[in-house]
Write a structure and sequence with these properties.
CATH topology of the largest domain: Rossmann fold
Shape: elongated
Distance between the termini: 31 Å
Largest sheet: 7 strands, parallel
CATH superfamily of the largest domain: Peptidase S8/S53 domain
Number of domains: 2
Number of strands: 20
CATH architecture of the largest domain: 3-Layer(aba) Sandwich
Structural class: alpha/beta
CATH class of the largest domain: Alpha Beta
Helix content: 25-40%
Strand order of the largest sheet: 11-12-10-15-16-17-18
Length: 437
């Protein structure tokens, strides 16, 4: 399944955007508007504070009426009048406002008109005796997951946009693969259950490359200041080792009917939400029976399809009924048109992921395409745990790549997580309501 590896030389940074006003109070991101990112909004907005002597001194007999709830905060009647007066005097639009009790002041976010100069407005307000302070809205970024920008597969699938709604919380993905380095900084705490069905060598389990790499694609921890982001970073993994490396310190691995049967039987007992099978081989009667039993139990099975043949039934276990088959978008193998529509397409070329002992590297193959889709399925199941494999496959079908579509993709054949979330939420788009990564 692996075509090549590569060395990692570059580091990039990304982060969550935050805007602040006063001691730790942050502006709500639900004021984000379609077509306007956090940076452009910040350039149009200012923070104004003024002293409110009523803060902290509400008469007991007026406790229930003196303050009213406004956008999640309590503002006195006097503060509201002052905010409105300042807005009228300087032709501003009030976006939000709340008392900062620790400083005895009221803080207001104003937006200025496009025709106004923000410097001139700030200068005028700074000389207004009613105003305690005035400043620009500043944008802050949490530096996290330094290799995120190198994860081109996540960008192609619009995973960041989907994470604004779901991250795989309360979903478990079982992996039948080689072992996993669960001590890796990006996988620590992500493996809920593990079992070695090949040997009884803990050191060999955590040294395995392929399983560690697949695990990173699915569930690498987000916003921990190191490495990468998994497609479903809040999901958990059941790591079942049924395969072993063909060569020492190499990603390529093999399994057999016995070890895979043991692992599938264990999966049926564990009852995870999803089973990821980043492997392929000849049709196997016993394994087919076990896969049908797993599917009967409600487990969504995702399998890698190498796409090396025009005969779809030769690609086991991807060829099993009700299994979600996934082919890597980048491979050069030919697929006939009749079978193309029955497979999902996901990124599988030069995928940056976790390696044993805290390392990262690039790998290619349908193994990692399947892992991407397993992660997206975890996102969908967080929204609706009752979805069947057939329903999920329908939701994940390529979107209309019309030029006017708000979810137009760089590669329309690749699974688009944002479009899938929008479909499931019966929404036009998933990326307009809140600020994201």
């Amino acid at each position: 399944m692996i075509s090549h590896t590569g060395a990692l030389f570059f580091i990039a940074y990304t982060g969550l955007s935050l805007v602040s006003c006063g001691d730790g109070l942050s502006v709500r991101t639900d004021t984000q508007e379609p077509g306007r990112d956090a940076a452009s909004l910040a350039r149009q907005r200012i923070l104004v504070t003024f002293v409110d002597s009523s803060i902290g001194r509400v008469p007991l007999n007026q406790a229930e009426t003196y303050y009213r709830q406004r956008t999640g905060y309590q503002s006195s009647t006097w503060s509201r009048r002052m905010s409105a007066k300042l807005a009228d005097d300087y032709e501003l639009v009030e976006v939000d406002g709340w008392p900062i009790a620790g400083l005895g002041i009221h803080c207001v976010v104003f937006e200025i008109a496009a025709r106004q100069s923000i410097d001139e407005v700030i200068e005028k307000l700074s000389h207004d005796k009613r105003v305690e302070s005035v400043q620009r809205m500043h944008l802050f970024r949490v530096l996290s997951d330094p290799y995120y920008r190198l994860q081109k597969g996540l960008h192609l699938m619009q995973i960041s946009e989907a994470h604004r709604w779901v991250t795989g919380r309360n979903i478990t993905v079982a992996m039948i693969d080689t072992g996993v380095d669960f001590d890796h900084p990006d996988l620590k705490g992500q493996v809920a259950d593990s079992e070695d069905l090949v040997t009884d060598d803990p050191s060999a389990f955590i040294d395995d490359i392929h399983g560690t790499a697949v695990a990173g694609v699915i569930a690498a921890v987000a916003d921990n200041g190191v490495g990468i982001v998994g497609v479903a970073p809040n999901s958990k993994l059941d790591a079942l080792k049924a395969c072993w490396p063909e060569l020492h310190n190499a990603p390529a691995a093999v399994c057999n009917s016995l070890t895979l049967a043991k692992a599938l039987d264990r999966v049926i007992a564990l009852k995870p939400n999803i089973l990821n099978l980043s492997l392929t081989g000849p049709r196997d009667p016993l394994l087919t029976r076990l896969l049908h039993k797993a599917i009967e139990k409600g487990i969504v099975v995702v399998a890698a399809d190498p796409g090396v043949t025009s005969h779809y039934d030769d690609s086991f276990p991807a060829s099993v009924d009700s299994v979600i088959a996934v082919h890597a978008a980048s491979t050069q193998n030919r697929i006939d048109q009749d079978t193309y529509a029955s497979r999902l397409i996901a990124p599988g070329s030069d995928i940056l992921t976790t390696f044993p002992h805290g390392l990262y590297n690039f790998l290619s193959g349908s193994s990692f395409a399947a892992a991407h889709v397993s992660g997206v399925v975890a996102l969908l199941l967080e929204l609706n745990p009752a979805l069947s494999a057939a329903e999920i496959k329908k939701i994940l079908q390529p979107i209309n790549n019309d030029v006017d579509s708000p979810l137009r993709s760089e590669n329309p054949k690749i699974v688009n997580a944002c479009a899938a979330i929008a479909r499931l939420r019966h929404s036009v788009r998933c990326d307009a309501a809140v600020a994201g990564r």
